Amino acid sequence: MMELYQHFRKEEQPFIDQVLQWRDNVLTKFTPQLTDFLNPREQLIFQSLIGNHDELQWGVYGGAEQAERKRVYLAPFYEEIHNSDFHVTLLEATYPSKFVTLEHRDVLGAFMSLGIKRGKLGDLIVTNNRIQILVASEIASYVIMNLTGIKQAGIQLEEKDMTALLSSEEEWEESSGTVSSLRLDAILKEMYQISRQKASDYIQKGYVKVNFRMVEDPAFTLQEKDIISLRSKGRSQLQTIEGKTKKDKWRIITAKLK
User: Fold this and answer.
1) Cβ distance 90 to 161 under 8 Å?
2) What does the pLDDT look like over 155-209, one tens digit per residue?
3) Radius of gyration over every alpha carbon of the chain, rounded to an integer in angstroms
4) Is the separation of the CB atoms in 126 and 107 below 8 Å?
5) Three-state DSSP class for 255?
6) Cα 219 from chain centroid?
7) How far apart are CA 144 and CA 157, in angstroms?
8) Residue 234 binned pLDDT confidence (cut-offs 50, 70, 90)
């Protein structure tokens, strides 16, 4: 087990244990396992642990192919997997954009204030007069009843067929570069074109999140598929670590939300 852990971060060990528990449940009890919505890093960990196991099959679904957050369904090899197995529900509301401006963070904040854990929420799409929320089906009716206002806007969420899902207006801009190390401050410097000292200051002030958790250590090591957000400067992802150059620098591919 220790050999397995060494490929991942210490704080990822509970999630690794959970994935292995799901695997064992399917192998020994033949009971399919449905996860909450996983972020891209968690999906990568799941994939690397389960891989192409002869006795298992699994799928991911978050409403759309390009969804960031997805539920995983793990089943015995003989079972067919359908979108309905993931129990993802699309909720939609309109709001008066003439009078109030809503952003992704406003909707997320209102959702989190209901006391529901983040794993029950998939992607959010916010346009200039419409909100769409992908949620775990088991909490859909609770959300409809309780999420009735965001900022000054009163809203009425309704369940919609998945064919009504809007394509996300988020655009990611890819770029490649080299960094001296995979430390958070070094990669933040490259992603946002700021000085390393400035990057370090932002981190220590609590302005930086990695996979939606605040990280205050500039030396924190990043790994593939990590999502990084810097307050007021948006979100980025470390997509690929391509290896080292002859000058011993790391070649990386990153993407930044436009």
Assistant:
1) yes
2) 999 999 999 999 876 788 999 999 999 999 999 999 999 999 999 999 999 999 9
3) 20
4) yes
5) strand
6) 22
7) 5
8) confident
